[in-house]
Amino acid sequence: MTHSKTKSILLAGVGGQGILRASDIVCMALIEAGMDVKKSEVHGMAQRGGCVTSHVRYSDKVHAPLSKHGSIDILLAFEKMETLRYLHYLTKDATIIVNADEIYPPAVNLGESDYHPDIVSFLQSNYKIVKEIDATELAKKAGNVKTANVVLLGVLAHHMDIKLSVWEDVIAKAFPEKLRKINLTAFQMGNAA
Amino acid sequence: MKVLMSGNEAIARGVYEAGVRFAAGYPGTPSTEIMEEFARYEGVYAEWSPNEKVALEVAIGAALAGEKSLACMKHVGVNVAADPLFTVSYTGTNSALVIITADDPSLHSSQNEQDNRNYAKFAKIPMLEPSDVQEAKDFAKLAFAISSQFDTPVFLRSTTRVSHSKAPVTLGDITPYEDKTNISYNAAKFVMVPANARLRRVEVEKRLNALKEFAETFSENKMEMNNPEIGIITAGMSYSYAKDVFPDFSYLKLGMVYPLPEKMIRDFAARVKRIYVIEELDPFLEEQIKAMGIKVIGKEIFPYTLEFDPGIIENAINKYEHATPHPVHKIHSIPHRPPNLCPGCPHRGLFYVLGKLKCFVAGDIGCYTLSYMKPLEGINSCICMGASIGMAHGMSKALKDKGRGKVVGVIGDSTFIHSGIPPLLNMVYNKSNALVIILDNSTTAMTGMQEHPATGFTLLGEETKSLDIKALVAALGIENIRVIDPHHLKTTREIIKEELAKDGPSVIIAERPCVLFKKAKTENKKPFKIDPDKCNGCRVCLGLGCPPISWKKIAKTEGSKKAGYAVIDETYCNGCGLCKQVCKFDAIS
Asked: Is residue A21 helix, strand or coil?
């Protein structure tokens, strides 16, 4: 039996940005849309303010939860510089969604090394689809800065073939009653951006 | 019904489905969530034991009393539990006993990447290894069945990528709990004095032979015949990676990695032209298969170190088969982003002080190990759980007068309880001059806030007696005991200096709850600000390595040496005030 080609998304950023929660929601939306899904991530010590990534892979039958270099279709970067760390994972036609947030790593804080300038223009000159978004700003507008991860899902939804109603159902289920409305607003703001 | 689950959630579910209601463990990445998830099921008894050795002994006791039981730990935890492990293999288990070892290829959160499949062979215990989340659940259930059938402990080996991946899982029926507990006496089987153990030793070999026969027909040792040119023998996550890039090869997938089904392997070898053995870390399968006289290709093309991914497997085989190699992708060099102590972390102040005191600081396992990095540089060694105290004592004894006032051991509260008590007693007994600092943040922080004997709560959320660490230290015979708040830098420095100067062993207990701890969060503190005019650009506050504090360069102006100033990101600042304490220019308020 031949299977459809497995597609891969990489969510990447810094510990504490809600990356794992966001990738759970992506998985739930894909399952609702009838896909087989596998995702992989690392918890624990690696997470304390360090790099966090979550691989999400989907098709009608997925084997590996981890992607190989040169195979990722969409990079959803929660932090600007983190985009550069994973470019070798992308296909040459990959879509890059990049949050405008800049979080300085220790070497930059200490003045030992510089935060890369002009990241977005570099990406734009090398990749066809690069979308920069100030998710933190939109999340503040939605009413809670912590919903920046869901704002980014709104942008991601724009580049995936899943009905908006499916996303909204899944987001509604993923949060407790009192956070539901604010997250749906954040998602819609991201989707409209 | 399909449910999105992590490998660890799936293992907990599988254990519960097997009708098991008893588990003991010690937290450790990537295993921790198995116990936490299992504890949520109705009607279970689950405990955090003080360490893995105790956890395994608790599970052995329960199994001997007729209760199916689980012992759960990370790979290095099995080292701690190894003493009972090797002998419970002789006694057998009465009821079922499964030991989970969660290995960490690539050392995502560990001090080594030992391959615990070797324990199966070493202790002569069968081992199952799931290749994905669904199998994690199913194999947990099968492990208990095998344990019951063969009166043996059974290993279930997970790896980080199985434990921490997620996938939809088809749930199974839950075997209802049957109370089969009773006290039974059988000295010949359970009293392992030499005379009895010699007889049990023979039984172990018989059991292993029976298990080898069982492996030949075990449902999870499977051949998938496709292209007869190339056969892959593999197990665990490597199977999923290989299948992803080479769906058309023939496979022998081993669900049981010890003991091996020799006849099945020979049969497979006869049906394919060339065999690759794909396994992360040690050539565990490869060496056994080569010892059968079967020619296979293994570690000559696959790495020994770190975890695999589909690309590593694809490239290694393609290169060997002279197929087109995968294009090499440029990796951009950008500043590292290592994990760091959180803003407001109680460890920061202590290691800021220690880093400046020019002592040798023997560290231990916990978040505080991160302070070995720049700019704190407050830890000089880290070997394993509990090693700090014994090492500090040994170093102090060896250095004699040269080490006076210069050797410190630091250990967290959970780690101290895990394996710090006997070495501290040793310091008293053998008249040490070293200083031990117990970092009491009231929780097992690094693995995600687990309870322990000094927190006052059990894994099941019940209130319990809370260990008084100071009274315990006094009871061990330590006479110099001081309690400090590591957020007060000046007193912290003074007290450490005083205790370092004293004869005999000293203990300082640095008390302050972890900032992520739910009870500490209620303290609502105002973020600090730096006045850029008052800041003279000395960078002393940057020496704290606090994530919200960064450096802003400015263009030099005439008559000023100031190259920049420090800034605090208010969204991340926790208001702990350490930076205010170190600022000599009153720029932080």
From this structure: helix
Give the pLDDT of chain A (193 residues) as one tens digit per residue.
456 799 999 999 998 899 999 999 999 999 999 999 999 997 655 556 789 999 999 999 999 999 999 999 999 999 999 999 999 999 999 999 999 999 888 888 888 888 988 999 999 999 999 999 999 999 999 999 999 999 999 999 999 999 999 999 999 999 999 999 999 999 999 999 9
Q: How many CB pairs under 8 A join A and B?
A: 177
**Nearest CA to A65 among B188, B163, B232, B425?**
B163
Fold of B524-589: Alpha-Beta Plaits (3.30.70)
Q: How many CA atoms lie within 13 A of A154 on its CB side?
A: 25
Assess contact for A66 and B241: CB atoms under 8 A.
Answer: yes
Higher pLDDT, B334 or A62: A62
For residue B332, give the nearest of A27, A84, A104 by CB distance: A84
Query: If you classify domain B221-320 with CATH, what class do you get?
Result: alpha beta
**Alpha-carbon gap: A154 to the closest alpha carbon of chain B (Å):** 21
ipTM associated with this complex: 0.95
Topology (CATH) of B346-511 = Rossmann fold (3.40.50)
Domain B2-217 sits in CATH at 3.40.50.970
Q: Look at residues A75, A57, A121, A107 and name the one whose alpha carbon lies nearest to residue B245.
A: A57
Distance between A188 CA and the closest CA of chain B, angstroms: 24
> Which residues in A lie closer than 8 A to residue B108 (C-beta atoms)?
42, 44-46
The domain over range A7-100+115-192 is classified in CATH as 3.40.190.120: no
Contact residues, B window 260-299, toward A, CB-based 8 Å cutoff: none
Q: Where are the domains of chain A?
A: 7-100+115-192
Share of chain B above pLDDT 90, in %: 90
> What backbone torsions phi and psi does residue A9 show, to the nearest 5 degrees?
-125, 140
